[in-house]
Amino acid sequence: MTRRNDIIAYVVAGTAIVAFAILLIFALFRLAETEAEMRENEGDNMLWAISRTQSAALLLDAAVTRYVALPQSTADIERRYNVLLSRLTLLSEGPQLRYMSDLGMSDNLALAEQEIRAFEGEILNLSFGNTGTVAAIHEVLGPLIQELGQAGNRSMVRQWEATGARLDKQRQSILQVITSILAIVALGVFLSVTMLRAMAGRQRFLRSFEREQEIAEAYRSFVALVSHQFRTPLAVIDSAMQRLLRSGRTMKPTEIERRAEQVRAEVGGLTDLIGATLDVVRLEAGHVTADPGVCNIETLVNRVRAGQLAETPGHVIKVQIADEVPPFIETDALLAEQILNNLVSNAVKYSPETEPVSIRVSALNRQICFAVLDSGVGISDEEQEKLFGRFYRASTSEGVPGIGVGLSIASQLATLLGGELECISHAGIGSTFTLKLPIDWGTPDAESNAQRSTA
Question: Which residues belong to any copy of the Histidine kinase domain (predicted)?
């Protein structure tokens, strides 16, 4: 399924990239085409050429008339004549001729040029009072001027139409470019979101994979540890029973009693291991709930101390309750006692018999702090972050019985009670584990922590 999703993601991303490239090329092409169309000014040039030709014809006609009518006229007839011919030649060649043909003037233009050239001698040798020649020239230039005027009008109308069509085309091109740009932006956003989702999904997958590896490794360690912890007491029990069977009635009652006590101790250890394992399962399944009530702090601490001294009478456990500590706290006494039992038991296990273990109770910020201090092996800074994880045992715990679930259970129970469990430790010096519980169960911190624990 994952492989199929990856293929679909690659196909979608590839299609989006191809569409992105196509739209970008199309937008650039339309922009270049629009820029080229904006540089086209053929209509403007032709309108200028036609108007200048008409102006040249008018000036020649006026110069001829003035030269014949005025005896002292200085009209430059030859220059006017040459200018008109050059204008007519310009309109009779190349693209200009095709443009004039479209206007329906190419034949008339050629005929007018021939007639004007036929009068070249009379025009250049014109004399004062020669009105007949002037009339003949005017008969040729008049229709030409009129047709050039009409051609100019038609060219202007044609230019307006072409300009309108060009503007419409440019507007359409600009709209297409804008649409392409918007589509490019949308595709870019889509690709970005797709890539971010893919990256997030990959990160989630990697985190999940790493988590699964950690869990698998934890369970492998747990299985190996539990197997070892179970085999050891079973081996002791089996050895004691074999000795009893071999010795039969010859074994002294005191020896039988000693071995029976040894078997009972090992059975008790097995029971504790099974109980801790079941506690982990119950906590993970959410079957453990808090039942808050009024708890006497001094009674709670003394009960924990007495229970531990009953198991390890050779150790010294000191209790200090600060003056500011109230006599009662609202919490689940059984769960709080279980946490403290675990902390005190660990402190005793990892401390020499000659070093006392202290339980100090203080009050701070509407919280009761139960601090358990020992002068044992301590824990390195690197391992303290993993200390409350399931089945984790510090390197300094080698040789000490346990499966690494006690502190994990204690931490989860502390959260269930709306509090927290903290550790300050230094390798080779000792550790201080502090259980912080709210004085009142109804405080916001207690409620939020309890909800997170049961979620």
Answer: 225-441
